[in-house]
Specification:
Elements (H helix, E strand, L loop, with lengths): L15 H7 L13 E2 L11 H13 L11 H15 L8 E4 L1 H13 L5 E6 L3 H9 L3 E6 L8 H5 L6 E7 L11 H13 L3 E5 L20 H4 L2 E6 L1 H4 L7 E4 L3 H9 L12 H10 L2 H26 L5 E2 L7 E5 L7 H12 L1 E2 L1 E2 L2 H4 L6 E5 L4 H22 L1
Parallel strand pairs: 1-11, 3-4, 3-5, 5-6, 6-7
Antiparallel strand pairs: 2-8, 7-8, 9-10, 10-13, 12-13
This protein binds pyridoxal-5'-phosphate (PLP).
């Protein structure tokens, strides 16, 4: 594979001025100009031309009436078709509900399934949104230790169950571990949950960013009774760079369950609901041109993953396992390092590099001693970021040695 970046994802394609004005959530717009932010997982590239054109066309038409509560019918159809064609999942448009992003889908499902005091199992480590969604619904997150390689084992999970356990939250592929769960481990686990009346929420927002030979299996591609024991959350922030449009969906194998979810939400009252413009962009993402753009982005990311791993492996004492999926690297700091928070603060102050610390607030207790960096940028920006990381860790090692 060529190491030359394609021009669509080359250094010149990173619109720094626009990012410095618009990219928030710890990224360019929230950092001084000389800082490289490999922080929130959000690509540094403009969206696919087909998405931009679809937005232009819709805006030019000038009609912005209310959309249906569950999302535009065409949107729901486009999602269902995508899942049937790309993911071998038996999904009907009536099982799809448009939501304001994956984060909103996660929160909606937690509110729907949890009553105050109910317990939900979440991984440790895992993205903070799981604990946040459970707590916001009045539930209690119970953390289940997980790592990059140990198979998900129901016998182990059983130790964390109580009579109040209602929900198992899966992040597949996993942020920040970069792991794809195997079909057989998912089947065993979801069956175990089904037999105990525990629902499964599968956040699959990372499922398009998978590096062969790794393969992804969706909850919705399991046997019908397993697929119907939960819901998938998905969105367009990671694969298509549409985070600011706040659009995603919940997908359920059981259309009646989806109808109940929608009826119990604030979408029919119009308090909540997804901008029709955002749904138009999302539909274009799943068009043939949108998927062709995604394939190029995936090829670019694979090169950036390898670039990141090569650089990390050359840093003394650092441990990082190449992710099977996602565009984040989960980096174990060298033994004897200061806390991740201290290292991150020093990297920012002295090297002008921003990364996310493995703090309980972001990822859980087991994230201690790690930092997470996002490599969805150009080869040049990434090289500079990785050089700064190497320089910062070298300096820290000199000081502690
Ligand atoms: C696992 C996971 N779920 C949800 C989100 C948020 O996605 P969205 O921007 O669509 O809310 C993220 C963002 O990093 C994520 O990693």
């Amino acid at each position: 594979m060529s190491t030359q970046p394609t021009s669509r994802f080359g250094d010149e394609a990173v619109p720094l001025e626009l990012l410095r004005a618009r990219a928030h959530n710890q990224r360019w717009a929230e950092q001084p100009d000389d800082v490289i932010p490999l922080t929130a997982a959000d690509p540094d590239f403009p969206a696919a031309p087909v998405i931009r054109q679809a937005l232009i066309d819709y805006v030019s038409s000038g009609v912005f009436s209310y959309g249906p509560a569950g999302g535009l019918f065409e949107f729901r159809q486009a999602v269902a078709r995508h899942w049937r064609q790309q993911r071998s999942a038996d999904l009907d448009a009536s099982g799809v509900i448009a939501v304001n992003s994956a984060a909103a889908g996660l929160a909606l499902l937690c509110r729907h399934w949890l009553s105050p005091g109910d317990e939900a199992i979440i991984g440790d480590p895992v993205d903070f949104l799981f604990g946040h969604g459970v707590r916001a619904a009045g539930g209690v997150p119970v953390t289940w230790p997980i790592d990059r390689f140990t198979p998900l084992d129901p016998a182990d999970l059983e130790r964390y169950l109580t009579p109040r356990t209602r929900l198992l939250c899966l992040c597949n592929p996993h942020n920040p571990l970069g792991r794809c769960f195997r079909r057989d481990e998912l089947e065993t686990l979801v069956r175990f949950c089904l037999e105990r009346g525990i629902k499964v929420l599968s956040d699959e927002i990372w499922s398009e960013i998978v590096y062969p030979p790794a393969t992804f299996t969706s909850l919705l591609a399991l046997a019908p009774e397993l697929a119907a024991n939960g819901a998938v959350v998905h969105g367009f922030s990671k694969s298509f760079g549409l985070a600011g449009l706040r659009v995603g969906y919940v997908a359920m194998a059981d259309p009646e369950a989806a109808a109940r979810l929608l009826a119990g939400s604030e979408q029919p009252s119009t308090v909540d609901g997804v901008s029709t413009l955002s749904q138009v962009a999302a539909m274009a993402a799943y068009s043939p041109d949108g998927l062709a753009w995604l394939a190029e982005f995936q090829a670019h990311l694979r090169q950036r993953r390898d670039q990141t791993m090569e650089a990390l492996q050359a840093m003394p004492g650092v441990q990082a396992i190449p992710p099977e999926a996602t565009y984040v690297a989960w980096v174990r700091l060298p033994p004897g390092s200061a806390s991740a928070e201290t290292v991150v603060a020093q990297l920012l102050e002295r090297q002008r590099l921003a990364v996310v610390p493995g703090s309980p607030r972001w990822f859980g207790q087991r994230a201690a001693g790690h930092v997470r960096l996002c490599f969805a940028t150009s080869a040049g920006v990434l090289a500079e970021g990785l050089e700064r990381l190497a320089a910062g860790l070298e300096e820290a090692a000199r000081q502690s040695g």
